[in-house]
Amino acid sequence: MSTTYKVKVNKTFEVDFTDDHISKIDALQTSSTTYHILQDSKSYDAEVLTNNFNTKNYSIKINNTIYDVDIANTLDLQIAAMGFSVGSSKQVNAIKAPMPGLLLDIQVEIGQEVKENDPLLILEAMKMENVILSPRDGVIKSIAADKSDAVEKGQLLIEFE
């Protein structure tokens, strides 16, 4: 089974590629970042200027023209279709109650700097204490609940700057 990739160039032009398409490209790597490509009897010089393997975003220069290229595989497309994005936890700006419960302790203050995985608060739900950890580094902007408050699922608890 062949993998399909959706390639978006300069955030406007989209094209689909499969492993079969890629295997038929006549490309010769000339250095760690440069390639010589032959396609339909035309010669192209390509250079990878920047790359981000996590976001699958590349800046590529082909015959002195620079293109911004985003690549998504089948899994990336499925994740996007569900409304998620890769690495989205690092972009969280608010903590909401994951379940109804009782807020036993708030371990941060407004203006406090926190690191990823620092404990923020303790929520008791179904007779279990759940420590809610910071999903990213940041500064606490506001705290929307108090110790001993009963909270509902989805209720705003903490906002980051």
Any descriptors?
161 residues; mainly beta; OB fold (Dihydrolipoamide Acetyltransferase, E2P); 2 domains; seven-stranded antiparallel sheet; four-stranded antiparallel sheet; 8% helix; Biotin_Carboxyl_Carrier/Decarb
Q: How is the main sheet built?
A: 7 strands, antiparallel
Structural category is mainly beta
Q: What is the number of helices?
A: 2
β-strand percent reads: over 45%
Tell me the number of structural domains: 2
DSSP summary, beta strand count = 15
What distance separates the N and C termini? 46 Å
Rg estimate, integer Å: 24 Å
Q: Which parts are unreliable, with pLDDT below 50 for 5 consecutive residues or more?
A: none
Query: How much is the average pLDDT?
Result: 88
Strand order of the largest sheet: 2-1-7-6-5-4-3
Order of helices and strands: EEHEEEEEHEEEEEEEE
From the spread of the alpha carbons, the general shape counts as elongated
Helix percent reads under 10%
Report on this structure.
This protein is mainly β. It folds into 2 domains: 4-81, no CATH class; 91-160, Beta Barrel (OB fold (Dihydrolipoamide Acetyltransferase, E2P)), CATH 2.40.50. It is built from 2 helices and 15 strands. The chain has helices spanning 19-23, 74-81; strands spanning 4-9, 13-18, 26-29, 34-39, 42-52, 57-62, 65-72, 94-96, 101-106, 113-114, 119-125, 128-133, 138-143, 150-151, 156-160. The strands form 3 sheets. A 7-stranded antiparallel beta sheet has the order 2-1-7-6-5-4-3. Strands 8-15-13-10 form a 4-stranded antiparallel beta sheet, with no helix packed on it. Strands 12-11-9-14 form a 4-stranded antiparallel beta sheet, with no helix packed on it. It starts with a strand and ends with a strand. Residues 83-161 form the Lipoyl-binding domain. Keywords: Biotin.
